[in-house]
Amino acid sequence: MDTHVLHRFLGLFIGLSLFISACKKDNPDTNQGNSTQTPTDDRVALTNDSIFLYAKEIYYWNQNLPTYDVFNPRQYTSNADKLKNYEANLLSIAQYSTSKYDILTVNNTDYTKFSYIEDVSGNSGVTAGVRNLTNSVNLTGQGNDVGIYDIAAYGSDTDFKVFIRAVYPGSPAARSGLTRGASITKIDGETIGDDWDRDYSYISRLLGDPFSIRLEGQKLGGSSYSISLSKQTYNSSPVYKDTVLTINNKNIGYVAYARFSDEENSFDVLDNVFSDFATKNVEDLVIDLRYNGGGYVATAEHLANLIAPSGTTGVMFVEYYNQLMQEGKATILKNQRVRNSNGEIIGTDTYASYSYKPEATGNTVNFKKAGNLSNVKNIVFLVTNNTASASELLINSLRGLSSLNIKLVGTTTYGKPVGFFPVRLESVYDLYLPSFSSKNAKGEGDYYNGFKPGTDIPGKEMLDNLGQDLDSFSEYDFGDPKELYLAEALNQLGVTASTTSNGPLMNIRSKQSNNTAQNLMKNKRSSKEFKGMIETRVR
């Protein structure tokens, strides 16, 4: 098999699900207790069977799952929306995960935290796509929206301000000159800022998937804007911003990284950023992962190798699969042919062909220095609850190096030490079942509760006296030393940037001590982007 082609295109662990083979009673481990699994031509029933049978063999907590008869996967067929049936099936599977790690409860409602299924048919079969064509950018850098990642709102119900948290590079919003820190005072002609209950309907429209929307407000620097944005497809860089800050004769490299996208979208961009850091003799880094939900393991590995000091060798991380996979008994993977990121079958191998033992090639990953940045000593990661999966893998891998001083600034990360590979079902859906956990060279892993800055890893938790995330007060662009997260990161690196200003910074600080101040967007934003850690290496 041409492994160069596979590495180039990041061929994913996906394939066409052969339902007849997947559901046959030819595996004694899988089919024990399968007396009710009868032949059917009901496509939803067959896919529900496949979801459960794949889980029985490749789910990280597969030993906790009951028999087919007890679980009864075909019970999830009543909804007219097929995807909702499959999601209900996954939620029931997740209830069996150890300590219910795969369950996320929000407002007394359970969701899967790790397991995931998406319709990729509208994305030409490319995995990790723009889910349901809503506003986000996928893992190949393709966007399909107006370009505003998220907004923040703070103040009181009758006196609040709305700011943009991030704008996707290359998007309609970016081309119109909008950036992080720009304020929004009108949406579709309606003034917002003095009646939260009324105004939130307009804010929700922006946070949804508008085909077109008109915004007014102020850009950074104070100039007013009035623009109409229309939903478009576009190519987006994964880097929001990079810069080198020279403070107190110290050169500090800063990069805000949006997602661990595929090689074609990420590698050259990251190489150029770190080449510039090397040219400018950077020794300390601030890596902004506040809105990075993860992506490809191979990209996290590449970034770790760009960061690692010269001469770094040894284990970066080790992947641990369930016992059935380690013993080579996950025979259902014979139905999954190797494909590239365009969904095209490559060669004749299936994913039953590879070893899933920890010591196997590809499962134990070693450092292999890349790029010319050679003397990094200190790294501060900026993190929030949206920092997940491959982002956490990067942090955990680098904290396994005794040569690096790692700190976090922000709030507790998402908590996803497990990864997966997509399984193609019906030639329409990609199923993601957490299948492996990872640990660094020191054996550190299992961070299911996330990394808490200043507790789990040294640094500073960025909450005000009311327990509000200081990222809500986002009136500065990425890379601006006056921005609260970055200012604290610089403090952690032993340098102090001037934060004196006649602008909004002092107003923000006064808001923090005002009991009427609140982060009005808390728990209001639904997740837009893919959260996951996708393994793509062929072993």
TrEMBL record:
Signal peptide (from-to): none
Name by which UniProt lists this protein: S41 family peptidase
Pfam families: PDZ_6 (PF17820), Peptidase_S41 (PF03572)
Database matches in InterPro entries: ClpP/crotonase-like_dom_sf, PDZ_6, PDZ_sf, Tail-specific_protease
Domain Tail specific protease: 222-458
